[in-house]
Amino acid sequence: MDRLLSLPRVFEPEKIEEKWYSFWEEKGYFSPDIDSPHPPFSMVIPPPNVTGYLHMGHALNLTLQDILARWKRMEGKKVLWVPGTDHAGIATQNVVEKQLTQNGLTRHDLGREKFLEKVWQWKEDYHQRIVNQLKKMGASCDWSRERFTMDEGLSRAVKEVFVRLFEEGLIYQDEYIVHWCPRCETALADIEVEYSENSSHLYYVKYPFKENPNEYLLVATTRPETMLGDVALAVHPQDERYQNLIGKVVLLPLVGRELPIIADEYVDPQFGTGVLKVTPAHDPNDFELGKKHQLPLIKVIDSKGKMNQEAGVFAGLSREEAREKIIQELEKNNYLEKIEDYNHSVGRCYRCDTVIEPFVSKQWFVKMKELAEPAMRAVKEGKVSFVPERWSRVYFEWMNNIRDWCVSRQIWWGHRIPVFYCRLNGHVFARTDQPDSCPYCGGPIEQDPDVLDTWFSSALWPFSTLGWPDETEELAIFYPTDVLVTGFDIIFFWVARMIMMGLKFMNEVPFHKVYITPLVRDAEGRKMSKSLGNALDPLEVAKECGIDALRFTLAWLTIQGRDINLSMKRIEASRNFMNKLWNAARFGLMNMEDFEQVDLSRQPLDLKDRWILSRMQSVIARVKEELDQFNFGEVASLLYDFVWGEFCDWYLEWSKQDLYQGSSQEKIKTQNVLKYLLENILKLLHPIIPYITEEIWQNIPLRESESIMVASWPEPRGEWVDSSAEKAVEFVQRIIREIRYLRAELAIGPQETVEVVINLSDNSLSGQFAESIGYIERLAKSVVSEWGVAITRPKGAAISRTKGADIYLKVEGLANLQEEMARLRKKIENLEQEFRRVETRVNNEAFRQRAPREVVEKETRRLEEIAREREKLFDLVEAITIQ
């Protein structure tokens, strides 16, 4: 039995993490047995970008998914957790293009084929980096089924979906104004544009009347560079200031183009002067106005964000340069009346942060209304539910205002659009294969040069990864998946589109639950970012504290509806918990070297055993309840409190008497209780902290399985639930705490044994107290010299009260009462000052409104704690003084 002593004195996570992950992989624990009769449980990983590097948001997402996967495996389900990576079209192409730039090259210098070879090579080089990082976090994905959004199978699925939608008329091509990134030179979908407040200016420009150039209309604009593309001015038809001017003509400053004055209810009379310049080629609202009033389109900015030939003398300038030059010319020619400071929202490319340009171009679109309606119905009917539920409102808000999805991108890396153009007769058709000629006339063909939006392939992820369009066994067993764990920021990008595509092509929702993870912020509640220097690298944290400590912290802080304020202090607290668990296990295993298995139900269990076994059943039941509700923080907190508090601080201390001084039968019984507790604690903790639990598990005598990963999930045993034992021990614990409190407040040293007298409130407590005296004496370093009902308080004794008992502690010879009274009064005085300070802050309305909710709650709790502590000290001083 020597190997039972093999747990080292110090827990060193770096020595076990790779060992156990390799062991699990080699044993095939991550792959489900397809033929197993057990019910399935499946998830798909939100595929990280192949360009990506693990950040704390990934670490949180992986931890929560892995908790679910490991838990369900232990429950006996056949679990499939599909991993994979995303090709991340624009992001990946940008990275490779930047590398080319360093060598003085562009993608056009290489040509499409050679450039794509470079990108594929880059993908191969960096793909394993992100995968290794996922594995490092302990993710128990089925790596034998790993997918990539541009692998052969997924490419086939993408073509199949596109062609079907095309043939149903749900995909169309149109000249339309889109969000355009001049840096990436591609269209962006609405939700790929990130908006932020920007300090800018409002320029008031004079537009002279054609009939009388000395009179003018004043127009306010934030973008004078686009005025070169103006084709009209618009006013509200009910605006009395301008009703008599509708139909008249003004001249475009610097250009001289004639512009009609039109009326439209879209115009806001309160903005600027109430006169709107209409530039259909460079503003999405103006584009709609232009269509409505049949106005021409004049493009003055090209795809690179430069002024084109239509801009005349300003051609070749950037948008910013043109704005500056045009302002100068307007001032010089007396067209500029004034400039005002103005804050407004500016859209930027979500990948490269370039200010987007509304741009008219030919693009491919998916009609969304028809797809959105069943997807909204699915959530309303509860076929898909969001956790927390409030995120469903965000989902509906977007779905109710959905616009057609621009799916074409003017880049090379991605799924090339499977549309072909006949150069002979102009036929346009979509195909899943690669035709050599036009199927209608045999003429030569060329494929559309654009690629699909990255999110198009991601929208098919839950069923394409399982083999669709083939009718595979995996698809039949594991679709729909059970849970999707993801961030709130991609409810629009990804979640909604997966629901739409799942219903369209599988006639079933892709998942039943969507768990939205909180945002990971720093300790002060700020968003983590490189620029602020407050981002914690999960892999660096893991080097310092271990993966288990990081995972436990992330689970511990995950409270539904709240962001996570993460700090090294909290991670260090989790590391301390790992050490506590390690030392407790080490103590238990060291005392099992001569272990003999017995049936605990046939053993004479004393109060402490009945209590801890009953508490264990409660914890087992609660953990299951909380996991079912995705209350990860509650689970971690519950297990932390039970292991550190009840198991380590109370039961292990009490068990030493049996282990070291008890009879043979008492020792065997206590060893078996310890083994049962340790096994079940490890099982409950394993989904959160897999590495340390496996290491300890391997040292348990007569364990049920070769790995904790395949051990059975604990079930509560009703025959061990004992509420009377729990109440009795709670009573004992309260007494011990009060004795410890008195010792601490009276500065009695830990080496001193104190004499206590216990006055019980009624005789009904006598039986349970008699069984508990030994527990009290051992854990409170005390001797109970007298106990019973109606006991008189001894002279010179300090007093403390708890429900059911008064505790009298004899202080004569142990403390100088005069000195201690002076110290305690000073402590009360300090607490009074602290109370007033915190009370003033908590009652301050400005503080309550402006401070984060967590801070207000923390301060309110602090106020209550100070009040309790002050009251208790006051009672102690008063009792001693009166006597």
pLDDT below 50 for ≥5 consecutive residues: which ranges?
1-5
Q: What is the terminal-to-terminal distance?
A: 59 Å
Output the number of helix runs: 27
According to DSSP, the number of beta strands is 29
Mean pLDDT: 92
The 3D shape can be described as globular
Major sheet attributes:
4 strands, antiparallel
Question: What radius of gyration results from the CA coordinates?
Answer: 36 Å
Give the helix/strand class: alpha/beta
Strand content: 15-25%
Output the strand order for the largest sheet.
6-5-14-16
Portion in helices: 40-55%
Q: Can you summarize this structure?
A:
The protein is α/β, with parallel strands linked by helices and 883 residues long. It has 27 helices and 29 strands. The strands form ten sheets. Strands 6-5-14-16 form a four-stranded antiparallel sheet. Strands 10-11-9-12 form a four-stranded mixed sheet, covered by helices on one side. Strands 27-26-29-28 form a four-stranded mixed sheet.
3D architecture notes:
This protein has 883 residues and is of the alpha/beta class. Helices cover 44% and strands 17% of the residues. The protein has 27 helices and 29 strands. Helix 16 packs across helix 17 (568-590), helix 18 packs antiparallel against helix 19 (632-661) and helix 22 (723-745) runs parallel beside helix 24. The longest helix is centred in the last third of the chain and has 30 residues, at 632-661.
Lay out the secondary structure:
Blueprint: H1 17-27, E1 40-44, H2 56-74, E2 78-82, E3 84-85, H3 89-102, H4 107-110, H5 112-136, E4 147-148, H6 152-167, E5 171-181, E6 186-188, E7 193-208, E8 216-221, E9 232-235, E10 249-251, E11 258-263, E12 276-278, H7 284-292, H8 319-332, E13 336-349, E14 357-366, H9 369-380, E15 385-387, H10 391-400, E16 405-406, E17 408-409, E18 419-422, E19 428-430, E20 445-447, E21 451-452, H11 454-458, H12 461-464, H13 473-478, E22 481-487, H14 491-506, E23 511-517, E24 520-521, H15 538-545, H16 547-556, E25 564-565, H17 568-590, H18 607-628, H19 632-661, H20 664-685, H21 690-697, H22 723-745, E26 754-760, H23 766-770, H24 773-779, E27 782-789, E28 797-802, E29 805-810, H25 817-842, H26 845-850, H27 853-882
Parallel strand pairs: 1-2, 3-4, 9-11, 15-23, 22-23, 24-25, 26-27
Antiparallel strand pairs: 5-6, 5-14, 7-8, 7-13, 9-12, 10-11, 14-16, 17-21, 18-19, 18-20, 26-29, 28-29
Helix pairs in contact: 9-10, 9-14, 15-16, 16-17, 16-19, 17-19, 18-19, 18-20, 18-22, 19-20, 20-21, 22-24, 25-27
